[in-house]
Amino acid sequence: MLVVDWSKETAFLLGRQFAVYELIQVASRGRGFHGAIMTDLYQAAASQPRRIFPLLDKRCEMDLARIGGDRKRLRLLLKTEVLRIKKSIPTGGYHRLPALLSDEQEDLFAAGYCHQRRELFGAADAAVSSTAMERSAPAHRLAEDGRHAPLVSPMA
Fold first, then answer.
1. Which of 58, 64, 88, 113 minimizes the number of CB atoms within 10 Å of its CB?
2. Does residue 141 sit within a domain?
3. Residue 143 is assigned to a structural domain of this protein
4. Is residue 152 in a domain?
5. 44 exposed, middle or buried (CB, 10 Å; 0-12, 13-18, 19+)?
6. How confident is the model over 90-122, as pLDDT tens digits?
């Protein structure tokens, strides 16, 4: 059996980076903020990283600047996590990212995204996120009794 270390794959690391960017955006705008980048830019980031990640990086800097006051430690922690993941990306900068990701690489992106969410929020949130990010997934899921139940995120 072949064991592959995903943690060094660019697409996997970009998925992790995207999850941290999402958390930074929500932290900067408060708990009531529902226009997170997940809904707007997930598919574009997962398929065209060279075009999207420089934009996300600029947005991240603006959002980090909004986190202040008694949450300076949170800002430092999030900024450190962003830099740690960025340094792990083997391409040598966003300008060298692949223009397009293959289907397999998009799957690695999704795995990295879920892995980072699980690391940040726990297994329950990662399961919700993986359901929500499916390309054609509706904004709801079936409850155990067959009725539709809304997706709930601990950040909401």
1. 58
2. no
3. no
4. no
5. middle
6. 866 666 889 999 999 999 999 999 999 999 887
User: Does residue 131 belong to any structural domain of this protein?
Assistant: yes
Number of domains in the chain: 1
In single-letter form, the type of residue at position 131 comes to T
Locus of tokens 């903020």:
33
So what's the pLDDT on residue 142?
34
Q: CB-based contacts of 41: which residues, under 8 Å, 6+ apart?
A: 52, 56
Q: Which two tokens stand for residue 83?
A: 């830099």
- What pTM value is reported for the model? 0.74
Structural domain span for residue 125: 6-136
Angle at 125 (CA atoms; ends 82, 153), nearest 5 degrees: 100
CA separation for the pair 104, 91 (Å, rounded) = 18
**72 or 135: which carries more pLDDT confidence?**
72
Residue type, 66: R
Provide the pLDDT for residue 96: 84
